[in-house]
Every structure is written in C-alpha cells, then in structure tokens.
Write a structure and sequence with these properties.
Elements (H helix, E strand, L loop, with lengths): L4 E5 L3 H12 L5 E5 L15 H4 L13 H4 L2 E4 L4 E5 L4 E4 L4 E3 L2 E4 L3 E3 L12 E3 L3 H10 L5 E5 L3 H12 L3 E6 L11 H13 L3 E4 L3 E7 L2 E7 L4 E3 L2 E4 L3 E3 L2 H5 L8 E2 L11 E3 L4 E5 L4 E3 L4 H15 L11 E6 L2 E7 L6 E7 L4 E8 L2 E8 L2 H13 L5 H5 L25
Parallel strand pairs: 1-2, 1-7, 2-3, 7-19, 9-16, 10-11, 10-16, 11-12, 18-20
Antiparallel strand pairs: 4-5, 5-6, 8-17, 13-14, 14-15, 20-21, 22-23, 23-26, 24-25, 25-26
Protein name: 3-phenylpropionate/trans-cinnamate dioxygenase ferredoxin reductase subunit
EC number: 1.18.1.3
GO molecular function, one term: ferredoxin-NAD+ reductase activity
C-alpha cells in the first residue's frame, strides 16, 4: 500500500526542504505543510542583519510564492498543532479540526532560551527568532541609545555588530571566559572579539546577567553577575535555544535534548520522522549523539529523510558547515571540533583573513575561516573525502592543499622543512 498523505509540521528551512524534496523524489500523494506563522516561509539568518538595517524590512522567501501551488503543497499557515495521535495517525489543531496522515515529519525547530532572572517581562527585553521579533526590535531601536546583548554566541555577536553599525552603544555579556567559546577556537574567538571592540562594542566576559530593572514597565538598566550596573533601553537575549519537543513528548516519542531519531531520521513511533534543530541523532562525523542548529543541517537532514521516507535509503554523510556575519568579518566553519588537541593557523591573523585547522592527533576535525571562503570550500571537500592535510603543509602558505584532492600533494620548498 502506497503513501497517500504526508504531513509536515514546521515551515522553517527543514520543513520546506522536506516538502520540496518529497516532490522532487517523486511523491505524488497529498502533501501538507503546517506552520504557526502567517507569513510565507522565509530565511531566518537575515533577521539579525539586513532585516534590522534596511529602511524597509524585507523577508527573503525560502521559495517563490507560487512554489506551493505548482508543487501541490497544501500550505496551512497560522495553524497550531496541539496534539499528535501516533496510533490513530492524526493531528489535532488548537482551534479545532484534525488532519490524518500516513507519514508525519516533525520540523518544529527551537525557541530562544530565557534567563531565570527578574525583569525579563519588562518592555524592551526581547529575543530574536522570527519576523515578529525582528519587527519588535526595529520598533524599540529608535528610543534605545544603550543596548545590552546577553550572550556572546553567534546570534548575540551578529546582533551586537548590527546595533553598533546603527550607531548604538552596545555591551555584550558573556558568562563564559570568551565569546563564541563553544563554537570556535580561542584564536578565532579572540580575533572576532578584537574586531568587535574596535567597532565600539564593549564585551564583558566571565560574567552573566543577574537582574533587569525598569521604570513604568520599561527596561532601564541591567545588573551583571559581578555587580556592575549598565544602562539599557533595550536588552536582547541570545543565550541559546531550546528544541520544541513538547508535541513529541506528549505523544510519547523518545527524546534526549531533542526528538531522538535513527539514521533514517525515524522517531520511536512508526511512520513519524523528525529533522532540523529539533532532531537528536548520532552524527557520523562526530561519533556521538548531538543536535545541530544550522540551516545546512536542517536542509540536508530534510533531503535525507525524504529519500528514506520514500524507500530510497542512502547513508547520511553530509559534512556540517556553518557561517556567521559579524560586521565586516565573514566567519565560516566546516566540521565538528570535539576534543581537539592542536590548532594550526594558515594565513596571517593580522591581515584579517586567515584560517584555523583543528586536529585531534592526525585527524582533521574542522576548519574555521575568517574572510577566506576558498579555504572553507576546500575544507568541505577535504572532510567529505576524509583527507587530513599534513600539519607542515597547512602551515606553509605556498603549499597547494587542493592537490590533496587530486593525488600527489604539491608543497613549496619551505613546506619540506617545517616541523609538525
């Protein structure tokens, strides 16, 4: 018996890609794409940058408006799923109605995590995840000369750079010893921190948020964990996200820091799959169970899940990559650097364009680049092929790393005498 109807819950990058891939792979049945937002599905990364900077904010659509009709995708916008009945294979909606399915794909994503401190309910305390949040930030900016960004991760540093470019006085609070500490090497972290400070951003590391204070219901200042008081007419929270697992958990699906899935992205319930920010799985490259939050991961998982769902299994071997635009710095990362024991620099950090190759023993784990897109693209090919460049070759600016993909490596005379 064939698959008559597939429902996808979530209209972010993973959900839309799942719908597109199912049609591209030949699915001819009914296809429903369900989302809580009323806008057509759109790219989220620009919300922290151009959406805030442009005179007129524009959404960048994931697919043209006519894509859904042309591909017979029934887009149910502004609809909130309140419950999943795995045994009965049906969805229940908050405002009434049900939808049956033969297969279900959960692409419910994640939401901003909020700190457990006083004052988060004050006007002017915001987080960024969707268009409504972006519009709220735009509305708050004219009256906000002083902005405090809580969290020195990707979203926090992107927003801080945007606010600084808009002429605001910006302070970043980061509880860890350095910004981007969980994501990049110390050298990259320090380099980006120096660039941020040079642009006028104040960075306070090793201290978190203790309280937010206001007057007449609106934020006026914050207190740090070490007792400092900073003025703030706008506080933006960027301390990470929490996966939206509530629907799955209530339906009895297994989860662990996300909805648990197997190598085919199947959950513990027959005929229910999960992809994107919400999915927890054993990553082939990292060799451990994890949950990745990135556009690339969401779309690659969606493509793979669609193939498995239609009986065309193939091993999931996508190499994870990420990016972050912070002012004039384009940070790109490929691979997963768990437990590295050596960082090797290629290029000159003083030039503002360089790369860090991260190793564990002789194994290349990841490559981080600042304003060196060619190294990033090369890194994606090297990691996909399982090739680890000799450390001496990486250090030598004259060595052609691309030759490793072709066979015999081509090194300069100096490469032969550089010690590893």
């Amino acid at each position: 018996m064939g698959i008559g109807r597939i429902a996808i819950v979530g209209t972010g990058h993973a959900g839309v890609q799942a719908a597109a891939s199912l049609r591209q792979d030949g699915f001819e049945g009914e296809l429903f794409l369900i989302g809580e937002e009323t806008d057509l599905p759109y790219h989220k990364p620009p919300l922290s940058k151009t959406f805030l900077k442009d005179d007129v904010p524009q959404l960048q659509l994931l697919r043209p408006e006519d894509f859904y009709a042309r591909n017979r995708v029934e887009l149910l916008s502004g609809r909130c799923v309140s419950a999943i009945d795995p045994a009965g294979k049906r969805l229940e909606f908050t405002h009434g109605g049900v939808l049956s399915f033969d297969r279900l794909v959960l692409a419910t994503g994640a939401r901003p995590r909020l700190p457990a401190v006083p004052g988060t309910d004050l006007e002017g305390v915001l987080a960024l995840r969707n268009r409504a949040d972006g519009l709220a930030l735009r509305a708050a900016l004219p009256a906000a000369g002083d902005v405090v960004v809580v969290g020195g991760g990707f979203i926090g540093m992107e927003l801080a750079s945007t606010f600084a470019a808009l002429g605001r006085s910006v302070a970043v609070l980061e509880a860890a010893p350095r910004i981007l500490g969980r994501a990049v090497s110390p050298l990259i972290s320090d380099h980006l921190a120096d660039r941020a400070v040079a642009s006028g951003i104040r960075i306070l590391t090793g201290t978190g948020l203790a309280a937010i204070a206001g007057e007449a219901g609106r934020v006026r200042r914050i207190t740090t964990g070490d007792g400092q008081s900073l003025p703030a007419q706008l506080v933006v929270i960027g301390i990470g996200v929490e996966p939206n697992v509530e629907l799955a958990a209530a339906a009895g699906l297994a989860f662990s820091n996300g909805i648990a899935v197997d190598a085919a992205f199947r959950t513990s319930a027959p005929d229910i799959y999960a992809v994107g920010d919400v999915a927890s799985y054993e990553h082939w490259l990292a060799g451990r169970v994890l949950r990745l939050e990135s556009v690339q991961n969401a779309t690659d998982q969606a493509r793979s899940a669609a193939a498995h769902l239609l009986g065309r299994p193939a091993p999931f071997r996508a190499v994870p990559w990420f990016w972050s635009d912070q002012g004039d710095a384009r940070l790109q990362m490929v691979g997963l650097a768990y437990d590295p024991d050596r960082d090797v620099v290629r290029g000159d950090p003083q030039s503002g364009a360089f790369s860090v190759f991260r190793y564990r023993g002789d194994r290349l784990l990841s490559i981080e680049t600042v304003n060196r897109p060619s190294d990033h693209m090369l890194g994606r090919k090297l990691l996909a092929a399982g090739i680890a460049p000799p450390i001496a070759m990486v250090r030598d600016a004259g060595a052609d790393l691309r030759s490793l993909l072709e066979g015999e490596p081509k090194t300069s005379a100096r490469a032969a005498v550089v010690s590893s």
